[in-house]
Amino acid sequence: MSHQLNHSTPHHVVIIGGGFGGLYAAQKLGKAPVKVTLIDKRNFHVFQPLLYQVATGGLSPADISSPLRALLSKNKNTEVLMGEVTAIDPERQTVKLRYREIEYDSLIVATGVTHQYFGNDWEEKAPGLKTIENALEIRRRVFIAFESAEKEPNPERRKDWLTFVLVGGGPAGVELAGALAELAHGTLKEDFRNIDTSEAKIILLQSPKHILPAYSSHLSLEAQASLEKLGVTVKTGVRVTDIRGQLVTYRQGETIEQIRARTILWTAGMKASPLANILAERAEAKLDKSGKVMVEPDFNLSKYPNIFVIGDLAHYPDGEGGILPGIAPVAMQEGEYVARFIRNGLQNRPLKPFQYTDWGNLAVIGKHKAVVDMGWLQLSGFFAWFVWLFIHVFYLLEFDNKLIVMIQWAWSYFTKSKGARLITTPGQDPTIQLEDDHETVVYEGLLSIEEVASRR
């Protein structure tokens, strides 16, 4: 069987994943002489760079999400299916959903990555921030913590409720830590009567020497100084070794330390989605150490050139000894390139090799503060914050989302208010518990520092 591009009409392009890569590929194929099927487990696209705002009550989920059907409604050659792909058969050129099989001529896999806990069972104790569901769970835990502290008579336990530990100092960790600090030290200060929310401790743990390691060292240091000015405690060069109960254990050099905290959040480490393993087993794809799929220069697989992998799931060399980062602009450009590659291939037209245009890295630290690293231009402070603001609004896909987010941000800017501070638990009422001393030994069964040290 030939696995070259099929020139039959209509050529069927199946896209798995409605993130930036998959969506931009589908949009680019909207007027091509092909049939497009986009499959995603959810019926909406989410603007992931603003998930931290949902997690801290600054925006509602709908403000940063758009229904996939609405985004692609003008593409008359495109159908959207809500479902989960469980298998890929590259010989028969089919993808299997739980309820049906779909044949393809070209397949684009853009299912991204998920949280990486490095072999530890910490997901329940320390949720990550990759989906709307993650953001809502973090929002629930954050505001439950303040509500529980308000009703907690025991001072030590109250401190535990008001301690927030974030593991990972990349852009997501930095932005989330800054937003939590502004929430505790500003937005909520007048809302409670029995606690002073400005006493909340936000602790950011980072394994490398600097936070934001992809940025220049001086911007990383400026970002750390800005976080510390907001009240965030930044600890770098540390490695978390255990999360158990309400205790976070970490090693710094030869020293082992522990932090008592009720809210622990994970923003460190990503691993490839399960479809990478399926491609390795069925299509002989090669995976790197993090499980990403190593692709050819045109993002296809060496044995099956009609299967393409893009976005966070793809291991694509950057020409300087590394790989392209897992950020939205990379996925957007890759999606558009693969769409052009398929379209031009059907028309026997050559296409220039892929060349990523690097517009730089951006991270917001708080109100008036951000860092922008474009290589030739490095900014921090207010102007960097303004650039960050403009770019994020620009990349929101729907006009009503742009308008709503601008209004929300303007209102928050002048009033210091965050209007989406809702505690929601699907299918049940929120639980705010008080724990009697005789009922709860908070750290029962935990290892002491000496015991942890003896096991490492």
The low-pLDDT segments are 436-448
Beginning-to-end CA distance, first to last residue: 53 Å
Q: Write down the overall mean pLDDT.
A: 88
The fraction of residues in strands falls at 15-25%
> What's the architecture of the largest domain, going by CATH?
3-Layer(bba) Sandwich
Topology-level CATH name of the largest domain: FAD/NAD(P)-binding domain
Oligomer state of the chains in this structure: single chain
Overall number of domains: 2
- The general outline is globular
Tally of alpha and pi helices: 12
Radius of gyration: 23 Å
CATH class value of the largest domain = Alpha Beta
**E-strand count:** 25
State the share of residues found in helices, binned by percent. 25-40%
Main β-sheet, in a few words?
Answer: 5 strands, parallel
Secondary-structure-derived class: alpha/beta
Side-by-side strand order of the widest sheet: 5-2-1-9-21
Give the arrangement of secondary structure elements.
Layout lengths: L10 E6 L3 H9 L5 E7 L3 E3 L4 H5 L9 E3 H4 L6 E5 L2 E5 L4 E4 L3 E3 L2 E4 L3 E3 L16 H20 L3 H7 L1 E5 L3 H17 L13 E6 L10 H14 L1 E5 L2 E6 L2 E6 L2 E6 L2 E4 L3 E3 L2 H9 L2 E2 L5 E2 L12 E3 L4 E2 L12 H19 L14 E6 L2 E5 L4 E4 H14 L3 H17 L33 H7 L1
Parallel strand pairs: 1-2, 1-9, 2-5, 9-21, 11-12, 11-17, 12-13, 20-22
Antiparallel strand pairs: 3-4, 6-7, 7-8, 10-18, 14-15, 15-16, 19-20, 23-24, 24-25
